[in-house]
Amino acid sequence: xxxxxxxxxxxxxxxxxxxxxxxxxxxxxxxxxxxxxxxxxxxxxxxxxxxxxxxxxxxxxxxxxxxxxxxxxxxxxxxxxxxxxxxxxxxxxxxxxxxxxxxxxxxxxxxxxxxxxxxxxxxxxxxxxxxxxxxxxxxxxxxxxxxxxxxxxxxxxxxxxxxxxxxxxxxxxxxxxxxxxxxxxxxxxxxxxxxxxxxxxxxxxxxxxxxxxxxxxxxxxxxxxxxxxxxxxxxxxxxxxxxxxxxxxxxxxxxxxxxxxxxxxxxxxxxxxxxxxxxxxxxxxxxxxxxxxxxxxxxxxxxxxxxxxxxxxxxxxxxxxxxxxxxxxxxxxxxxxxxxxxxxxxxxxxxxxxxxxxxxxxxxxxxxxxxxxxxxxxxxxxxxxxxxxxxx
Length: 392
Description:
- Helices cover 32% and strands 33% of the residues.
- It is α+β, with helices and mostly antiparallel strands.
- It has three domains: 240 residues, no CATH class; 87 residues, Alpha-Beta Plaits (2-Layer Sandwich); 55 residues, Ubiquitin-like (UB roll), CATH 3.10.20.
- A hairpin with a 2-residue loop joins β6 and β7.
- α3 packs antiparallel against α4, α8 runs antiparallel to α9 and α10 crosses α11.
């Protein structure tokens, strides 16, 4: 089984409420989300969850309803940190939520040329943004994914009204947050990606790419507040990776040496092979071929590391009848392996176990140990190997 992936398809941008809608549409229970947000121990807001549609695309709309907007507090970063750290949320949720808030604080601080501790969180400190950011961390943990990926992010265009007045899109803080993220602009004439949405991606997404190899298992749509020519939705996928598991596959550079011979005494091959292995060759093998004038011959192939190629070429020229050889670079793809000891009724046998995609794909008993046990106990090799596999 491949890795479980959460993929953000931000073709129309992303905001905090669109993200919550998409997470609920993907399967996060709305009552669970509200219950977890209750662990912040702050009053004055509630989640309003409904079905909605944009340009024929149906999805979930989540709105953070502020019950008394006039009494909202404006908070600094330390207030946010205290609020989250003093809650009973999980450590993972706390860490992720604080990372998102910290990104916004750093961006605002740079834009206004002040320290992040002095940033006045007029917007991000508001209850709806707190719910959006902490809610994002809660939902991502609930989905239990191994990796989070995203497409290039649509920012939009035009101007947006902020606490400091009219700002160009992307807003300066958003521009700072997405500095290292692939983006697109101009699809719509409004702010398609908010600072909160940008920070959620920047703090949690490991890979931004349109070429993620995955098998989609489920799709969710988060409905935005606008309804224009472009469907104002955030699409998210729960998927499974189809790419090779790089943790189980090691790629190394190597060299292949080859020479063709039709005039060497066959008895010499064993001697040459022994010398090549003793000198450090990774593999040595022969392949029957037909040479000029239909004479039968063999190709002697030697796989080795670059740093010992000179020594092995010397052996080939001195110990064989070859007067020339081919040399070319190759890649070795090596599966992760481990040695396990298996106890049988005849004795212990080491087994080489190989992994790919997080699963065992091959188990091979050590031949020489099996041979010795068979000889010692007067049984066949097949009987020894049956005992090994029975006790794996």
